[in-house]
Amino acid sequence: QVQLVESGGGLVQPGGSLRLSCVGSGFASGFDLSYYTIGWVRQAPGKEREGVSCISSVDGSTTYADSVKGRFAISRDNAQNTVYLQMNNLQPEDTAVYYCATDRLIYSACDGQYDYWGQGTQVTVSS
């Protein structure tokens, strides 16, 4: 069973930065995180889930929500089975639980459809 574990959340002042990590494990024999498209999704209290960013396993292409473009950057280190979300110039409206997620199929598109989710990491932006 695929497992995703997020870390790196915390409390930061407006304008600050955080780097979230998502470590994957439990892949079928012969496969690792590099085969899987990974997305970051956030959910703020009382709001619906919002897709933040995605990195494709097909060609490494990335997508971002308009609300984070120019401030967030997604990347992957396949040797470490890890995907990162670098978040800069954080604002109070970025406060949410951040989840990483992946599709059960390899080489899937960044289409916002996910089967496996991590437990989430809390990001709080406040002065």
Please provide a written account of the structure.
There is one protein chain. The protein is built from no helices and eleven strands. By secondary structure, the protein is mainly β. The strands form two sheets. Strands 2, 4, 5, 6, 9, 10 and 11 form a seven-stranded mixed beta sheet that branches. The protein has a four-stranded antiparallel beta sheet with strand order 1-3-8-7, with no helix packed on it. The chain is globular, with a radius of gyration of 14 Å.
Structural class: mainly beta
Poorly predicted ranges:
none
Strand content: 35-45%
pLDDT averaged over residues: 95
CA radius of gyration is 14 Å
Order of helices and strands: EEEEEEEEEEE
Largest sheet: 7 strands, mixed
Shape designation: globular
Helix content: under 10%
Number of strands: 11
Distance between the ends: 40 Å
Number of helices: 0
